[in-house]
What does this fold into?
Amino acid sequence: MKKTPLYEKHLELSGKIVDFGGWALPVEYSGIIQEHEAVRNAAGLFDVSHMGEVLIEGKDAESFIQKMVTNDILTMKDFQIYYSPMCYEDGGVVDDLMVYKYNNEKYLLVINASNTEKDIEWLKSNLAGDVEIKDLSDKYALLALQGPKAESILQKLTDTKLDEIGFFEFKEGVKLGEVSALISRTGYTGEDGFEIYIAPEDADTLWDMIMQAGSDEGLKPAGLGARDTLRFEVCLPLYGNELDKDITPLEAGLGYFVKLSKDDFIGKEALAKQKSEGIKRKLCCFEMIDRGIARSGYDVYSGDEKIGFVTTGTYSPTLKKNLGMAIIDVDFNEIGTEIIVDVRKRRLKAQVVKKPFYTKKYKKD
Amino acid sequence: MNVPNDLLFSKTHEWVKVEGNIAYLGLTDFAQDKLGQIVFLDLPELGQEVNANEQIAEVESVKAVAEFFSPVSGKVVKVNEELLDSPEQINENPYGSWFIAVELSNQSELDELLTPQKYEALLMDEEGH
It folds into this structure.
């Protein structure tokens, strides 16, 4: 298994190490529920150094990325970030990613760890014009500091005014003590917070500095288990669950990030066709009525008819209910519709509910 | 890992506390720690007949599902309903959180179970991986 620069730190903190797509990462330290609650109510610190970073540079960087992703990056300002799916010609998803724009000749794509090789190959096979693609994944460690106290904790470590970094914006060369960082106001929890990109050799020092700064504010180290339940409650998609090569962004409810009005991009034709013909299955949220927890991959029925499958299901620490997301036939996605989830041969009743389960608490002005 | 010396154990990490003809069954400290925070439990019905090595319950944490096998055969004479509403007790006090009590139909099955010493040896092996 690959190790992040913080591997020893996780062991020191008694993190429960699991194999996460080939990476040895902590699923939890003190417990998923406590960590989840810390992020909702105070703050949590995550090691997400496994994420991939790809630099796209050159005169044609802008037009190249515009062709590769479904969102319209021409409307981006410098030091802004957009989220976007990246699709195949048939509308299936290669990956979902974050586009960091330095200027229109330099972008950083932040991609899912398990898709890094595939993405880079895909980008290279579609290369056009004056563009260079560099895999910087090994050059960055990445910490995510998330939660309502994130800003006040991080502010203790820097003279840079963090409130100048707006939602989905970033700043380079921010000094946190001796450490130089790229900081963005982004995350994967539905709370305010930051993602902090640093050199791998600074990871250990910065982790300790942040934990120290947050020691009297309820900051906890948080693992990938809490990261998953946090993103789930606000219905942020996870590649491999809500998105994959056989699920289009329109089916996953990400139409907002698919700009069919922009000039050609890979997948446009298929997605435009799907939209005009009507989307036949869509992501919906459900709550279990019967006792049981739906898990990813379980079949969903209406009566005896199979209508779809669970993409993510779990116990929700904030709502204290057993909840799930599923991709089902649109005939059944009206709120209040009763559906059946096949939980290991037991047919359990559930009900379609409003999306999301928990409203995001982003700091936007 | 805590292994009390007045209990018997199965290879699949259930514990058994024998009181006369009655066996109380639960999940070991090792198993609860492996699972993480337990948020759901499904138990057999009162009066149900269970067989040794049969899956009779499911224990779910936030991330995982674990099967619970009965180490013994017999009739379910008590069900710990309280655990259904607060399964986190299993994490907090695994040896105090019995799932069910079974009236033993075959006492000799107890001979097949692991002593605390043997169970500890099993844990050493599993941890070694």
Summary: The first strand of chain A starts at residue 2 and ends at 3. Chain A has eight helices and 20 strands. The mean pLDDT of chain A is 97.
